[in-house]
């Protein structure tokens, strides 16, 4: 067999080191697959809220697995315990691995203590999608909101995460904001740890 | 200055799925544009039979006194044709670029039903940008 001499043969597949894998995936392939995911879910639901929830659930599964993988591969099995730590992990590392770049911005909400926002000029999943007028405020970014929710929940920071379009003056396309609202116990714990 | 009069996209059964005119000449109302589309679809098909050369893939270019009509047919049978001023350069590469925009912003849109009229905002925006005359000149390079 060609090439087998180069690889060190492991007796147990669990001993093989976790490879970094292929860094790049075809954008078209992903876009078509995601489009099919949305279309499939559309046939199963009656209303838009249900469709958003389904995309959210699909993203949650991705987020849970991404957290495990990245903790092992990129962070050397260290666990984040602080709020800002986990937020910058999501904003930089998770975004870099999933979308090839860090998120545009991370902001703290001015109105409420427990709100944080990750903003993006245009989410990768939404790049080829035009929402018809009769769907109102529906945003396929609900999938990305689900990913963030999956990462936060499984890291011990339960939160409600939603995706919103924010119209910007002077630009035709609105910006997308992922709004993260942390649960009460997370803030209490953070306050305790800050002392 | 070379000008594009209008752009038509017809699906594989001959129905018009997209029509855009650039406001200068050759404007048509909805019924007329539907008729032109189905006329062209039939002529394109008949020309394949009439051709003295085997393996003809249909009409690519129709030249008249006051306009040129360039046509591009994709593998699945969707036809893109543009009516423009005579002797306008780079129309073939424009049609191919429009086909790329179609595959990106229409076919990857989960809310678009195949073979139905195209109502995708992103496609319209990018198409308007592409059809501006300075962009067409850039495509020719």
TrEMBL record, chain A:
Short name of any one Pfam family annotated for the protein = TRAPP
CDD domains from the UniProt entry: TRAPPC5_Trs31 (cd14943)
Is Glycoprotein a UniProt keyword of this protein? Answer: no
Question: Which GO BP annotation is one of this protein's?
Answer: vesicle-mediated transport
Query: Does Ion transport show up as a keyword for this record?
Result: no
GO cellular component terms given for this protein = endoplasmic reticulum; Golgi apparatus
The record's subcellular location field reads: Endoplasmic reticulum; Golgi apparatus, cis-Golgi network
What domain of life?
Eukaryota
* Record's keyword terms, sorted: Endoplasmic reticulum, ER-Golgi transport, Golgi apparatus, Transport
* Primary localisation category: endoplasmic reticulum
Q: Which SUPFAM superfamilies match?
A: Ligand-binding domain in the NO signalling and Golgi transport
Assembly and interaction partners:
Part of the multisubunit TRAPP (transport protein particle) complex.
Q: Which family is it part of?
A: Belongs to the TRAPP small subunits family. BET3 subfamily.
Q: What protein am I looking at?
A: Trafficking protein particle complex subunit
The species this protein belongs to is Eruca vesicaria subsp. sativa (Garden rocket)
The lineage, from the top, is: Eukaryota, Viridiplantae, Streptophyta, Embryophyta, Tracheophyta
UniProtKB/TrEMBL annotation, chain B:
For this record, an example GO cellular component is: TRAPP complex
Question: What does the record list as GO biological process?
Answer: endoplasmic reticulum to Golgi vesicle-mediated transport
Annotated InterPro entries:
Longin-like_dom_sf (IPR011012), TRAPPC (IPR007233)
| Gene3D superfamilies, A to Z | 3.30.450.70
**Keywords assigned by UniProt, alphabetized:** Endoplasmic reticulum, ER-Golgi transport, Golgi apparatus, Transport
Chief place where the protein resides: endoplasmic reticulum
Q: Where in the cell is it found?
A: Endoplasmic reticulum; Golgi apparatus, cis-Golgi network; Golgi apparatus
Q: Which family does it belong to?
A: Belongs to the TRAPP small subunits family.
Tell me how this protein assembles.
Part of the multisubunit transport protein particle (TRAPP) complex.
Q: What is this protein called?
A: Trafficking protein particle complex subunit
């Amino acid at each position: 067999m060609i090439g087998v001499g180069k690889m060190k043969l492991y007796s147990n597949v669990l001993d093989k080191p976790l490879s970094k894998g292929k860094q790049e995936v075809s954008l078209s392939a992903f876009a078509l697959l995601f489009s099919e995911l949305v279309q499939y879910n559309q046939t199963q639901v009656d209303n838009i809220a249900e469709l958003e929830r389904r995309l959210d659930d699909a993203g949650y599964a991705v987020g849970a697995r991404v957290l495990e993988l990245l903790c092992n591969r990129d962070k050397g099995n260290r666990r984040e315990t602080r709020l800002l730590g986990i937020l910058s992990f999501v904003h930089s590392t998770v975004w870099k691995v999933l979308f090839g770049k860090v998120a545009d911005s991370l902001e703290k909400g001015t109105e409420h203590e427990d709100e944080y926002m990750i903003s993006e000029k245009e989410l990768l999943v939404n790049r080829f999608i035009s929402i018809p007028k009769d769907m109102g405020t529906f945003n396929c970014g609900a999938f990305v909101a689900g990913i963030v929710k999956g990462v936060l929940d499984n890291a011990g920071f339960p939160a409600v995460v939603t995706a919103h379009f924010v119209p910007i003056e002077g630009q035709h396309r609105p910006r997308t904001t992922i709004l993260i609202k942390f649960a009460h116990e997370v803030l209490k714990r953070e306050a305790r740890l800050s002392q | 200055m070379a000008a594009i009069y209008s752009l038509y996209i017809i699906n594989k059964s001959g129905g018009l799925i997209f029509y855009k005119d650039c406001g200068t000449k050759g404007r048509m109302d909805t019924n007329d544009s539907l008729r032109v589309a189905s006329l062209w679809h039939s002529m394109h098909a008949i020309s394949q039979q009439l051709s003295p050369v085997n393996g003809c893939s249909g009409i690519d270019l129709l030249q008249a006194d006051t306009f040129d009509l360039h046509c591009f047919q994709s593998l699945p049978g969707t036809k893109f044709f543009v009516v423009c001023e005579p002797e306008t350069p780079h129309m073939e590469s424009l049609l191919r670029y429009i086909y790329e925009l179609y595959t990106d912003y229409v076919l990857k849109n989960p809310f678009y039903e195949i073979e139905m009229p195209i109502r995708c905002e992103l496609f319209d925006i990018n198409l308007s940008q592409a059809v501006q005359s300075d962009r067409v000149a850039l495509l020719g390079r």
